[in-house]
Amino acid sequence: MNKASEMLPKKFRNLIGYKVQSQQKQSQSTDLTVIDESLLILEQKLIQKCALKAQPKSMRGKPRAKIEVDLRNIRGFLGKKEQKQPECILAQMMEDKSVVFEDDIFTGDYLVRQPIKHGFFNLTDGYNMQDVIEDLYKLTLYGLSCKLEVKNVSDYYCILVIPDIFQRVQVKMLVDMIIRQLGFKGIYLHLESVLSSFGANLQQCCVVDIGYEKINITCVDDGVILPGTYVRKNFGSKDIDLVLMRQVTKRNACDQAVQLQSNNYGDLLQMEKLKEKACQLTQKEDKLNYNYELHCLRNQKEKRFFVQHNDGLYISANTLFESEPFNEIRKQDMHECFDFTGRLFEMQYDPEDNFEELSGGIQLCWYWGSKEKEQQYFIEGNQMLNPNYMIPLDHMIAYSIAQVQDPEIRQKLANNILFTGGGAHLIDLVDEVEALLIEKFQVMELNEIERVEVKTIIRDVRPINMAWVGATVLPKTESVSELWITGSRWLGNLEPQKDELEDMINQFDGDVQQLEKKLIAFAKKDKEKDRSCEYGLKHLKEKIPFIW
Ligand SMILES: Nc1ncnc2c1ncn2[C@@H]1O[C@H](COP(=O)(O)OP(=O)(O)OP(=O)(O)O)[C@@H](O)[C@H]1O
């Protein structure tokens, strides 16, 4: 989040910690040994392709150069970072540390809740809609007070960026929280992929968003998502971190005393930083003597350790194209996902989702509704649309573009593949995708596609900020005053219809009794008239430019 006038957004994780007794803390780690076999197969494939070579003998035993990865996070854990106090009801809670945000979450015995997972509310038996909204309210308030230093929320309008696939009831609750609880002056909503196309200023493009926990692909034409082009996976950059963690452990690339754990947020965060610094798709021999300095927390003490440069750094990155390791991890909980605290997360079916429209007629409940149906869907081989089954990235992009009937548009889309989301920053990704897609389109006999171009940084905007930049463009458009759904319209606090009232007053000829009668009749009529289109959800539906 940030003010639309700022150049860059302020990002913080959607996590909130509550002080609890230590035994209440839930932690269960994912068994990463299940991916060993598929990683070995992947390694063999990369060796066969000559993308991976054995380490030259001359390099072994050479003094290693030290590379610091990121120390700031761990300093944050230990509370050395200065934190601003919000001037609001959260202040007390934050002062006595009964509620904590960002890195503070990992400094004590906190129950960590993640209100949004894979783009949906993270609903479980013990975590209902109200809890999620309450946590999102606190997180937003924290952001507004401590990150943006907004004093008077009622002076501001809010632009809410929502995922392309959403559950209507969840979005309704979010809008209501933003208007009613936080007190914003008004709101406007738009879809992430469409906003990315605005941010990149591309009229027709295939938007490939590689986020933390989801990959989302759609083709956008003039602000509209083309039906049937939608591919969405509940996998993301975080899964590369998990694979990397296993590789580092398996290869004994780090200090044996440090047992990295998938349910330890600090450890995962260090893998994330290591990935951002050192993961890439093709092997680089000049990095062989690098030693990465990382830090972990053990018994509330900071511990320094080193990870040697190793082939796992290439293999993990390649899992985006050889997805078996991701699926092996997910097979452990085929129908349920666990977040890093080990909490069960089950995808909820909502009759109000918009998936059917986007997928060209396939209902989300078809495979999210029940285990049997998902299993059936899985067996029947229609894996492209199964969100819990990962498919190589190039296959998904090619599938999305191939759904478009018009060859001319298909061609334009292949020339404008827009990579967004933090995962798109992975080194060598663009070259790899371009090369694979050219081959793929040939195999699919889409002969009109002669050129593939992947776009990442556009006018200095990095992929991770593309949708946000698109959102900041909205208030600058000419029709801005028409866009907003004001607080009073959402809440139904309608003004009486002015014209009629004004006419009545203008026609006043001194007869007070007559005017009084007219006013009473007007008030009665106004009350009886159906004005439901002018407020609440119906009003919102008229304002938003996408399928609700
Ligand atoms: N330079 C980089 N190289 C590789 N990965 C990166 C880089 N920078 C950021 N990332 C990864 O991008 C991810 C965050 O991306 P982003 O902010 O788009 O996710 P998000 O929008 O929060 O996720 P989601 O779409 O699942 O809601 C993190 O996993 C991070 O490690």
UniProtKB/TrEMBL annotation:
Record GO biological process: double-strand break repair; regulation of DNA-templated transcription
InterPro entries: Actin, ATPase_NBD
Cellular component GO terms, alphabetical: Ino80 complex
Pfam entry (one): Actin
Reactions listed under catalytic activity: ATP + H2O = ADP + phosphate + H(+)
Matching PANTHER family: ACTIN
Record-stated family: Belongs to the actin family.
Protein name (Swiss-Prot/TrEMBL): Actin-related protein 8
